[in-house]
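Case study: PIN domain-containing protein.
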Amino acid sequence: MPFLLQAQSQQIQGLIATHTLAELYSVLTRIPKTKISPAVAQNLIRDNLQTFETVSLTAEDYTAAIDLMVQRQLPGGGIFDALIAQAVLKSQADVLLTLNPKHFTRLGSEIAYKVQVPQ
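Here is what the predicted structure looks like once written out:
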C-alpha cells in the first residue's frame, strides 16, 4: 500500500473520517479469511494510522450527507459512504481512496472526480 507508506513518511497528508475507524475495525474483524482478533485489529489501526489526521463530522455535516442521499434518491447503507464523502469535502482532500469506487461515484461529480482505487 504505497499510499499508506507515503502518509506514514509524511510525503502526503493522510486523512481519515472518524466513522471510517469503526468501519475499518468491522472489516478487519469480519472479512479476512484468516480471522483477526479484536485486539490485533485495534493494534493495526493504532499502529498504521498514527500519522493520519482524523476528520470529525458535525450534525450539519450529517444533515448534508442525508440531503445528498435524498437528492440522489439513494436509500439505506449508502449513507455511510455519503458520510465519508462529506468528510472528504469538509477536509478539502484531493483524493478519496477506496476499494469500492462505485459506492462514491454515484454520489455525484463533486466527489466522483476525487475517487481513486489504491494500487
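For the exam, be able to explain this: The chain has a mean pLDDT of 93.
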